[in-house]
Amino acid sequence: MRERVKTILLFLLVFSSIYMTQKLWMQLPNQFLEDLSTNEAFSKSYVLSDMITPNKYLLNFGNTFHTILYYESQNSIWENSRAIVASILGSEDITIDEITKDQYLKFQEERSLVLYLPEQMNTYILAKMWNVKTPNDIADTIPNINEIYIYLGSKDPFFVFSDNTNFILVQNSSINNTLLKNDLTHIKESGNYNIYYSMREGYGIESDIYIPSEMKTTMPEVYVSNVLGSLDEDAKDRIAERFLDKSIDYIREIVEGNGSTFYVLNDKSLKLNANGTLEYFQPLEEKVTERNLYTSLSTVAEFITKKESTIEGMYLESIDEIESDSNEGYRLTFKYRISGIPVLLGNRDVDDYIEIEVFNNHIRSYKQLTRREMNQGINTSFEHRPLLSFDVLDKNYEFLVKEYLIYNNSDEVNEENIRNEVLGAIEDITLSYYDPNLKDKSEKLIGVWAIKLNGKTYAFNAYTGNLVFEK
Amino acid sequence: MWKRIITCIMIMLSLMSFSTLSYATVVDASKYEIINPEKSSYSTEEKVVLINGKAPSGTEVTINVYGTTDISIKNTKNGKDKNFNLDKLPTEDDYILMSTEKVSSGNMGLFQKQMDLVKGINKIVINFGVEGIDKVEIIVYVYDRSGIVTRDAIKTTILPLLK
């Protein structure tokens, strides 16, 4: 009898220890370590259509009531809007009219949705990326777009495609936008959003930047760590095998004095730096005299699917044309969002989290800073609500005026003119996280209002209004 | 004696008129402006309003929002209906102060405040606290269209399921 009790107690102890271990491991960033070190095929794939997603959504509820969403993880806005935008780009039954900017601005007072793309994109390529087999005349009428307006009112559906200069109204009464209308109604009725207004509506300034009139929500507290720094030799070898497509037995490995590891296989190389960056390089095998964006984007999507394990929150920020020894290609930069909020990187040596040089079918270089969220699943938020971007602008107004006057070599003295000029020159205002990148482990991200002016980004602490970073 | 009194009165009057005149030259009314709401009276179904405007830096602007008694209540004494709207505005006695906010005009010479409204007639009184600058009154009628919205929502939720 006594032995039985002992056995039962032993079983209980074993089960409780398993349970406690599971609880403990759930709170550590081991998912990333597993992801990085595993050599198996990834379950997620970074398909081409995922690459170009809006970096902002403007939801117009009617009249002057708007909100801005940076990410729509809890809703299906992107999924539903991509489906109907793809339908309209491939539809044969459309009417196209050019409208003025004033007419377009008037449409913002109707129930609608505006998708802001990270930068101007070729309309034909977008259509192909969104699986449109035969793009229609829209791609010829407006070759590049960075903004798509979807009307969601009670009248017949219509769209406006814009490159900020041209505004093309497209109508097709057979498009079904019911699901998207439901999304808008759901968000409106939840009331869980911040009301935004445009500077044009608020202050009569020539600017379509939207700023909040009140912040209802706080920002989650986020800590990040370098992933590479915490990997053991075996895990590093697995990464090398994945990038160089060969067993580690065939790869030459050089460990440098500063802790960096260098892997070489023929002309391919991979460097895992002690500062947490990963650098892959493979020289061009043949001349690329004509760049093709669609092919290049497909190559990048395939490369990311094969090599990159942490695609959660990753988004394409910019595409730049590059030339190297008469070869033509593109440099793509990717950023991250954490809890739907974009992260600004404060590292002076590394421009962005991911930078890829692609020449049609060939990836020449891939640089990545592997910093990831530590406290996934733990919901702690900053105690207070962030300041309004209006208050941050106001606090730093003199500084911004000074920067504006220096940049534009202006000596304007009229107070009202200066105010209108400076506010009108602001290119973007976005609530973001700032990653100072000073610590390898448990670095707390700072909530900031990132203000773009004169091509520079100024990050102001969202709680104190102090300038923390400019680039 | 009378001559002296009249002279004194004349001097006092001239001094008073001079002070008013000089004051008028100091306050520049064009620097005080309510940008939003644009209209002095309007109706909406939104229960919030953004109030913003211009005023010289440091000006403390007081915003009072007055609501009315429940619009469905009938006055039992005289049997009159109290369903107020923009054509049938309440008297001063019908208004109740709902909220008061003070906001300062900042370095940009601008101020802004989001205020909550109540169902029915709301009177917003914006006071710049500067002599010579009139208070601004805005009437907002907040109507409830929840019944219609709900029916629409039901319709749009069910329709895709039927297809």
Helix content of chain B: 25-40%
Q: Number of helix segments of chain B?
A: 2
Shape of chain A: globular
Strand content of chain A: 25-35%
Question: Whole-number average pLDDT of chain B?
Answer: 75
Number of strands of chain B: 8
Your description of this structure?
The complex is a heterodimer of chains A (471) and B (163). Helix content of chain A is 31%, strand content 32%. The longest helix of chain A has 25 residues, at 2-26. With 471 residues, chain A is an alpha+beta fold. In chain A, a hairpin with a 2-residue loop joins strand 16 (327-338) and strand 17. Chain B contains 2 helices and 8 strands, in the order αββββββββα. In chain B, the strands form 2 sheets. In chain B, strands 2-8-7-4-5 form a 5-stranded mixed sheet, with no helix packed on it. The longest helix of chain B has 25 residues, at 2-26. In chain B, 21% of the residues are buried. The chains are: A alpha+beta (471), B alpha+beta (163). The interface between A and B is medium-sized, with 29 and 21 residues.
What are the main properties of this structure?
heterodimer, A: 471 residues, alpha+beta, TATA-Binding Protein, 3 domains, 13-stranded mixed beta sheet, 7-stranded antiparallel beta sheet, 25 strands, globular, B: 163 residues, Immunoglobulin-like, 5-stranded mixed beta sheet, 3-stranded antiparallel beta sheet, 2 helices, 26% helix, 34% strand
